Amino acid sequence: xxxxxxxxxxxxxxxxxxxxxxxxxxxxxxxxxxxxxxxxxxxxxxxxxxxxxxxxxxxxxxxxxxxxxxxxxxxxxxxxxxxxxxxxxxxxxxxxxxxxxxxxxxxxxxxxxxxxxxxxxxxxxxxxxxxxxxxxxxxxxxxxxxxxxxxxxxxxxxxxxxxxxxxxxxxxxxxxxxxxxxxxxxxxxxxxxxxxxxxxxxxxxxxxxxxxxxxxxxxxxxxxxxxxxxxxxxxxxxxxxxxxxxxxxxxxxxxxxxxxxxxxxxxxxxxxxxxxxxxxxxxxxxxxxxxxxxxxxxxxxxxxxxxxxxxxxxxxxxxxxxxxxxxxxxxxx
Length: 333
What we know:
mainly alpha, 14 helices, globular
């Protein structure tokens, strides 16, 4: 237990390094090969991970039981429909029949999934796990954290390329300071801070700092430059993420019983991924709407207004996460 913070630090840093390496190498591939290679390259990488995983990872313990494939199909279809509906809102409209129909279907499938879990002897997600302290609040906070963080990366990249006219390579390069800060803090600092102050204080502070960073980004001008308008805000955002990500994960799984640790871990990773998709879909919808409504100001100004709105939407999401973590997360002893 006393090494948990350090272990999570390495885990979080490796995730940050992988994500940032993907952004940087994606820029290299786009610049010197083709954007299609950002997809092709994942095939050999995936195969290498599968081979290495089979050879290196320990087998673990097996337990007897059935897997509810129907449950898996229901929750996957539900999340896919909900995210797809949000992504397509700008095209289909908020109140169109296809938007309301697909979103309603997604909710119905989600309800069916919950009912099936409640009555199943071999539930994919036993609902009793939500009785664990901090688990529900922690998962909600992690979903919101992802919903704020992923739009930051996405729209910062667009701002660098479309407003500041960076190449794909230079845009990826400009994001490396964030990666370096995250890796250093997650490996060398966050674990020690959690040990000293507990995960709640770090989580609240990290989310608050991330919110300030996003508000800063929401002011980026058309005639901005990297050192004045990007570097400081990006490093501040990296500090916020470094302080919040690991404590949020720990809060989500800390109350689970030992035999439920795998389910709790899988749940928080799932909610983070779903949150990133939904958060980005919301940011895209509000940004596109803003750009469309301000097109009379000129194409460049309209697009940049959309970027500013996306950053502010992410700031609102992060601010809500801050409030929830302050009120609903219980401090670990």
